[in-house]
Amino acid sequence: MPVTASTVRAVLGWSPGPGVPDVDASALLLTGSGRVRSDDDFVFCNRPRHASGAVRHLGKQAGADSLDVDLNGLGPDIERVALCASADGGTFGQVPGLHLRLFDAASGTELARFDMEAGAETAYVSGELYRRAGGWKFRAVGQGYADGPAGLATDFGISVDEEPPSPGPAAPHRGPARRGPGAGRGRGAVPRGRGKAVPRRR
Fold this sequence. Notes:
Blueprint: E1 2-3, E2 7-13, E3 22-30, E4 42-43, E5 55-61, E6 64-70, E7 80-88, E8 99-104, E9 110-115, E10 123-132, E11 135-145, H1 148-155, E12 189-191, E13 198-199
Antiparallel strand pairs: 1-11, 2-6, 2-8, 3-4, 3-7, 5-6, 7-10, 8-9, 9-13, 10-11, 11-12
């Protein structure tokens, strides 16, 4: 779906209630390789503003978490902005009414809505903004990760600190483990979602 607005607002929404996990929105700024340049290209609640100022996490309200993306402010080497979500304290299968809405940030006009269905996943790529023929477009993705935010982060080149192992018998030394941006690519990824993003008439 073509996006002509210079700045868009992505609003991740759900129906909160007792027993519903907390949900957080985030964004990944990706190059043509489909990976971040560094961990600084990950924008979320604890890093609410990208160094370029082009992507900002606006904060959470009841049943909604929002991000603003200034498409004109993105560097020329950024080809995609992945709009992501994570669930804390449960899985997305326990989150009713999960959806992503895209707005023209200036006018408030809704451009698209994508309703999602999930199961055991705790991390999700809801949709993405991407360059095409000199302009920007939006598409729904609906890809969940059964191995959680760590699996999603590893897929896109974010460094993940491994938790120390629990104390136990010493294991034979096998040399240093290989860890790198490419480790685990696609591991646990589960396509999800229902239908396509529905453009809204102006």
